[in-house]
Amino acid sequence: MDYTAGQANRLGNRANNQDRCLLLDHEGTVLLAVADGMGGHARGELAAQAFIDTLSQLFLGSEGLEDPAVSLRDAFRAAHHAIRCVGAAQQPPIQPLTTGVACLIQGGTALWAHVGDSRAYLIRDGKVALRSRDHTRVADMVEAGLITERQARIHPLRNHVSLCLGGTPQPPPVTLGPLIYLVAGDILLLCSDGLWSAVSESRLINLLEDADTAQAIDRLAAAAEQASYPQSDNVSGVALRWAGGRQSIEADTTASRDDAPSCTQNGLQDSHQDPLERAIAEIEQALSEYGGEMLGK
User: What pTM did the predictor assign?
Assistant: First the structure.
């Protein structure tokens, strides 16, 4: 695959950093991810780190991803249980929470999944061609026509998410985006709300237009941090610019689908159970060996 990529993570005006980023290339597949630990709850950084660690472990331990949708759903489910294990291992036990977004790129295609208000963008021809829909009450109001996008940016409930990872015994429904056939010049951006809420989409696009993707995402994160000073949240983002590898095909712009049936009380199909249970068991063993703090560093 031919691409350039970079990531940025800034503290903002916060006492600690509860955001985490991931950028991995393994056997012809790229995994991007961002997690935003929920600061209104205990140790959000533990939840964010558990999300990133679980996705990384499953991704690097795989021998190939025949179905990206299944892989993403399974990874989010495993991360949810890992977060609960991390919280239970603390003294006293806690319930850390996080939002999360991840994207798999392989064979000239991309597919993302998310829970909460960490976002994914596809930027094509200088425009936002696709964007994930936040799991928030404010996003629901915008979709219902009760408020505008501009009003949503300053609404008092804008930071209240309706779905997150961790906490509840059952995993939340995971929303998958459409399968995207990448075209040369396409930019994929995953970011926390500390980034997207601080800059307009036009400025976001302009700052990412730089051919040096690593410098572009760093400048974008710095601009978001400065724009929201002195109340800046943690600011994180991962960007990938696609340079080729497939003939130009328009993205499938069908509506994002909610794969809640894959996370019902009956769980996933048996064919997907064993790898997840093994991963969770390994995380639990590591937590017992390291006193429950391994994922919090």
Answer: 0.82
